[in-house]
UniProtKB/TrEMBL annotation:
Transferase found in the keyword field: yes
InterPro entries: 3-oxoacid_CoA-transf_A (IPR012792), 3-oxoacid_CoA-transf_B (IPR012791), 3-oxoacid_CoA-transferase (IPR014388), CoA_trans_fam_I (IPR004165), NagB/RpiA_transferase-like (IPR037171)
Active site (catalytic residues): 282
The protein, known as: 3-oxoacid CoA-transferase
Taxonomic classification: Bacteria, Pseudomonadati, Bacteroidota, Cytophagia, Cytophagales
Keyword Transferase belongs to the record: yes
Example of a GO biological process term: ketone body catabolic process
UniProt keyword terms in alphabetical order: Transferase
EC top class named in words: transferase
SMART domains: CoA_trans
SUPFAM superfamilies: NagB/RpiA/CoA transferase-like
UniProt GO MF annotations: succinyl-CoA:3-oxo-acid CoA-transferase activity
EC number: 2.8.3.5
Length: 455
């Protein structure tokens, strides 16, 4: 059995050269090799192409490299979480490429497996597909994505043995597992290094054959930035709760359900264990439970896609981001409940970008919108200026084509029946005249006798 060298942080980052492509594991600061990133920020290494889900937080992780001017180009899924990354991209200071989260994970997995590329339905018909080859496969338009490899990968594992076998803790697998396969040189930052044989073979997530060097580094709450603890709790008005309650009516026992941020997150607070609904989070978990109540944070618990600590229900499982999105694209997620900015008469969805605003990140929205068996959108019926969100044709950048099955707003519930937008319910306090006045999309009406909504 080979022995993988254990080196210092300074020795590790000296292996990164000017102009290298650097893969960095982590989802937010969870499973983020933050000590390696900070040590690299102390060097003069420059002109890096950075590949990761996001560029850390402001001044933390990859955010420190960005602030130092060491990054020439960044490739990722969700830069919005770091305002400095958004500003650098939109000002032209740093080149960037935006990929849907599942596409990014699969591209890294393909690169690590020696696969040149693949076709995916995710992003078809959107701005992110512009300039890419497309084909119709199985009657569905699909976009060609090349595999991704790097010169160096920084990954974070919880434990390693001296042979380089790695095991990850809870949702810390995320992008780390795929990235550990997809670089010429893989350096693993780990909490603990144990003698070979102390990690049971069935508990090895990344075999030592992928790993070139180990660095031992102890994680602290300060290292995790804003992911360190649970927020003080959400407060929602009755209108938003009504939408969440109505969405819950569509979920049944045994359903695998993904809940997006915003109003959909409130649905999780309404679900009880007796409902038998299995919550999925795209950063690698099935069986998501409520937020912890003991004051514990990300050092003690898994995190969801909103980077919030959660509990794990009995029967839960953890996996990496590539497997999670394979689950989504493979139609193993029954229902996705997401927020929306616009929905149009053809069931097209826009929910990830507003021109002129400091937003730069699609996350998992495109994968979920095109991959879930059923897509429910929850959103306010109008914008703050009173303009309609239910429109004849989306004006904002598209997330997915002909993907929406149901829309729940503060005024009404719509379904697409035989391809036609159809009003089926009024929400509490709403009138048909108000819905008609505030909806520019054409729709049919099949209302029940009594409005439904809040119980």
């Amino acid at each position: 059995m080979k022995t993988v060298p254990q080196i210092s942080l300074q020795e590790a980052v000296a292996l990164v050269k000017d102009g290298d492509t650097l893969l960095q594991g982590g989802f937010g600061m969870t499973g983020n090799p933050v000590h390696l990133m900070h040590a690299l920020a102390e060097t003069k290494t420059k002109d890096l192409t950075f590949i990761g889900n996001n560029v850390g937080e402001v001044g933390i992780g990859g955010g420190r490299l960005l602030r130092n001017g060491q990054i020439k180009k960044m490739i990722g899924s969700f830069f919005t979480s770091n305002p400095e990354a958004v500003k650098a991209a939109q000002s032209g200071q740093v080149e960037y490429e935006l990929l849907p989260q599942g596409t990014l994970a699969e591209a890294i997995r393909a690169g690590g497996a020696g696969i040149g590329g693949f076709f995916t339905p995710t992003s078809a018909g959107t701005e992110l597909a512009k300039g890419r080859e497309t084909k119709v496969i199985n009657c569905k338009e699909q976009v060609y994505i090349e595999g991704i490899r790097g010169n160096v990968a920084f990954v974070r594992a919880w434990k390693a043995d001296t042979a380089g076998n790695l095991t990850y803790r809870m949702t810390e697998q995320n992008f780390n597992r795929a990235m550990a396969t997809a670089a010429d040189l893989v350096i693993a930052e780990v909490e603990e290094i144990v003698p070979v044989g102390q990690i049971a073979p069935e508990h090895v997530h990344t075999p030592g054959s992928y790993v070139n060097y180990l660095v031992q580094a102890t994680l602290t709450l300060e290292d995790l930035g804003s992911s360190a603890s649970v927020s003080s709790g959400r407060k929602a008005d009755e209108t938003r709760l009504n939408m969440a309650r109505r969405a819950l009516q569509e979920l049944k026992k045994g359903d695998v359900v993904n809940l997006g941020i915003g109003i959909p997150t409130l649905v999780a607070d309404l679900i009880s264990p007796e409902d038998g609904i299995v919550l999925h989070t795209e950063n690698g978990m099935l069986g998501v439970g409520p937020a912890p109540t003991d004051g514990g944070g990300a050092m003690d618990y898994p995190v969801n896609a909103g980077k919030i600590p959660v509990t794990a229900l009995p029967g839960s499982s953890y996996f990496d981001s590539a497997d999670s999105f394979a689950m989504i694209r493979g139609k193993h997620v029954d229902i996705a409940v997401m927020g929306g900015l616009e929905v149009d008469e053809k069931a097209n969805l826009a929910n990830w970008a507003v021109p002129g605003q400091p937003l730069l990140g699609v996350g998992g929205a495109m994968d979920l919108a095109s991959g879930a068996k059923t897509l429910i959108i929850t959103m306010t019926h109008t914008n703050k200026d009173g303009s309609a969100k239910m429109v004849p044709a989306c004006n904002l950048p598209l997330t997915a084509l002909q993907a929406v099955d149901m829309v729940i707003t503060d005024l009404a519930v719509f379904k697409f029946i035989d391809g036609k937008l159809t009003l089926i319910e009024l929400m509490p306090g709403a009138t048909l005249e108000e819905v008609r006045a505030k909806t520019t999309a054409a729709f049919e009406e099949k209302l029940a006798q009594e409005p439904q909504g809040a119980n």
